Amino acid sequence: MTTANFESLKAGDTIDGPAFAVSRESIRLFCDASLDYNPLHLDDNYMKGDFGKTNFGGIIMHGMNNFGLISRMLTDWALPAGAIHRRLETRWLKPVKPGDTIRPAGAIKAKQTTAKSRWVLVDVAVQNQRGETVAAGEAMLEFPPNAKAG
Questions:
Q1: Which InterPro entries does the record match to this protein (predicted)?
Q2: 50 part of a folded domain
Q3: Beta strand 20-21 with 14-16: parallel, antiparallel or unpaired?
Protein backbone atom coordinates (compact mmCIF):
# COMPACT_ATOMS: atom_id res chain seq x y z
CA MET A 1 0.00 0.00 0.00
CA THR A 2 1.52 3.33 -0.99
CA THR A 3 -0.63 5.88 0.83
CA ALA A 4 -3.48 5.88 3.31
CA ASN A 5 -7.12 6.39 2.38
CA PHE A 6 -9.43 5.79 5.35
CA GLU A 7 -12.48 4.85 3.30
CA SER A 8 -10.70 2.08 1.40
CA LEU A 9 -8.66 0.65 4.32
CA LYS A 10 -9.55 -2.80 5.60
CA ALA A 11 -8.14 -5.26 8.11
CA GLY A 12 -5.18 -7.11 6.65
CA ASP A 13 -3.99 -4.27 4.39
CA THR A 14 -0.22 -3.92 4.70
CA ILE A 15 2.25 -1.06 4.97
CA ASP A 16 5.90 -1.48 4.04
CA GLY A 17 8.75 0.69 5.19
CA PRO A 18 12.21 1.18 3.71
CA ALA A 19 15.10 -1.15 4.47
CA PHE A 20 17.81 0.15 6.78
CA ALA A 21 21.37 -1.18 6.68
CA VAL A 22 22.83 -1.15 10.19
CA SER A 23 26.50 -0.27 10.44
CA ARG A 24 28.89 0.78 13.16
CA GLU A 25 28.66 4.28 11.71
CA SER A 26 24.83 4.35 11.81
CA ILE A 27 24.94 3.18 15.43
CA ARG A 28 27.47 5.88 16.29
CA LEU A 29 25.36 8.53 14.54
CA PHE A 30 22.34 7.46 16.62
CA CYS A 31 24.52 7.75 19.75
CA ASP A 32 25.31 11.33 18.76
CA ALA A 33 21.69 12.17 17.92
CA SER A 34 20.29 10.66 21.12
CA LEU A 35 23.22 11.50 23.41
CA ASP A 36 23.12 7.83 24.48
CA TYR A 37 26.72 6.64 24.65
CA ASN A 38 26.02 3.42 26.54
CA PRO A 39 28.85 0.91 25.96
CA LEU A 40 26.19 -1.54 24.69
CA HIS A 41 26.36 0.43 21.45
CA LEU A 42 30.05 1.32 21.27
CA ASP A 43 32.38 -1.11 23.06
CA ASP A 44 32.82 -4.66 21.71
CA ASN A 45 35.02 -5.63 24.66
CA TYR A 46 32.34 -4.54 27.11
CA MET A 47 29.77 -6.54 25.14
CA LYS A 48 31.79 -9.78 25.43
CA GLY A 49 30.48 -10.10 28.99
CA ASP A 50 27.21 -11.68 30.04
CA PHE A 51 24.11 -9.65 30.91
CA GLY A 52 22.20 -12.03 33.13
CA LYS A 53 21.57 -14.99 30.85
CA THR A 54 22.29 -13.03 27.66
CA ASN A 55 25.52 -12.59 25.76
CA PHE A 56 25.28 -10.31 22.74
CA GLY A 57 28.82 -11.02 21.49
CA GLY A 58 29.34 -7.46 20.27
CA ILE A 59 27.73 -4.05 20.05
CA ILE A 60 24.03 -3.72 19.30
CA MET A 61 21.87 -1.03 17.73
CA HIS A 62 19.72 1.21 19.92
CA GLY A 63 16.24 -0.23 20.30
CA MET A 64 14.85 3.27 19.77
CA ASN A 65 16.20 3.13 16.23
CA ASN A 66 13.50 0.50 15.52
CA PHE A 67 10.94 2.92 16.97
CA GLY A 68 12.19 5.65 14.64
CA LEU A 69 11.98 3.41 11.56
CA ILE A 70 8.41 2.42 12.41
CA SER A 71 7.47 6.06 13.01
CA ARG A 72 8.94 7.06 9.64
CA MET A 73 7.02 4.29 7.86
CA LEU A 74 3.72 5.32 9.48
CA THR A 75 4.23 9.02 8.86
CA ASP A 76 5.26 8.51 5.23
CA TRP A 77 2.12 6.43 4.73
CA ALA A 78 -0.42 8.51 6.66
CA LEU A 79 0.67 12.15 6.41
CA PRO A 80 -0.20 12.60 2.70
CA ALA A 81 -3.82 11.73 3.61
CA GLY A 82 -3.83 14.26 6.47
CA ALA A 83 -3.68 11.53 9.12
CA ILE A 84 -1.79 11.87 12.38
CA HIS A 85 0.38 9.25 14.08
CA ARG A 86 -1.02 9.30 17.65
CA ARG A 87 0.45 6.31 19.51
CA LEU A 88 3.16 3.68 19.14
CA GLU A 89 4.07 0.92 21.57
CA THR A 90 6.85 -1.53 20.76
CA ARG A 91 8.77 -4.39 22.34
CA TRP A 92 12.35 -5.23 21.43
CA LEU A 93 12.59 -8.94 20.80
CA LYS A 94 16.08 -9.56 19.37
CA PRO A 95 19.27 -7.53 19.22
CA VAL A 96 20.22 -5.83 15.96
CA LYS A 97 23.93 -5.80 15.08
CA PRO A 98 26.16 -4.10 12.55
CA GLY A 99 25.73 -5.88 9.22
CA ASP A 100 22.01 -6.52 9.73
CA THR A 101 19.46 -5.03 7.36
CA ILE A 102 16.12 -4.34 8.99
CA ARG A 103 12.77 -3.32 7.55
CA PRO A 104 9.58 -2.13 9.27
CA ALA A 105 6.15 -3.31 8.16
CA GLY A 106 2.60 -2.96 9.36
CA ALA A 107 -0.79 -4.57 8.95
CA ILE A 108 -4.13 -2.88 9.53
CA LYS A 109 -5.72 -4.54 12.54
CA ALA A 110 -8.93 -2.51 12.81
CA LYS A 111 -10.53 0.81 12.00
CA GLN A 112 -13.23 2.69 13.83
CA THR A 113 -15.24 5.85 13.40
CA THR A 114 -16.18 7.80 16.53
CA ALA A 115 -18.28 10.92 17.01
CA LYS A 116 -15.19 13.11 16.72
CA SER A 117 -12.76 11.25 14.45
CA ARG A 118 -11.69 8.14 12.55
CA TRP A 119 -9.07 5.73 13.89
CA VAL A 120 -6.84 3.00 12.47
CA LEU A 121 -5.04 0.41 14.59
CA VAL A 122 -1.91 -1.10 13.03
CA ASP A 123 0.17 -4.09 14.11
CA VAL A 124 3.81 -3.17 13.44
CA ALA A 125 7.01 -5.19 13.29
CA VAL A 126 10.63 -4.86 12.25
CA GLN A 127 12.36 -7.87 10.69
CA ASN A 128 15.98 -8.52 9.88
CA GLN A 129 17.41 -10.01 6.70
CA ARG A 130 16.84 -13.54 8.09
CA GLY A 131 13.10 -12.88 8.53
CA GLU A 132 13.42 -12.74 12.32
CA THR A 133 11.18 -10.24 14.09
CA VAL A 134 13.42 -7.92 16.12
CA ALA A 135 10.69 -5.53 17.33
CA ALA A 136 6.89 -5.68 17.40
CA GLY A 137 4.04 -3.58 18.64
CA GLU A 138 0.95 -1.59 17.85
CA ALA A 139 0.27 1.89 16.51
CA MET A 140 -2.80 4.09 16.36
CA LEU A 141 -3.39 6.72 13.71
CA GLU A 142 -6.11 9.34 13.56
CA PHE A 143 -7.77 10.36 10.32
CA PRO A 144 -9.57 13.57 11.33
CA PRO A 145 -12.91 14.10 9.54
CA ASN A 146 -11.35 16.98 7.57
CA ALA A 147 -8.37 14.86 6.45
CA LYS A 148 -7.74 14.67 2.70
CA ALA A 149 -9.36 11.73 0.92
CA GLY A 150 -5.90 10.42 -0.07
A1: HotDog_dom_sf (IPR029069), MaoC-like_dom (IPR002539), UPF0336/Enoyl-CoA_hydratase (IPR050965)
A2: no
A3: unpaired
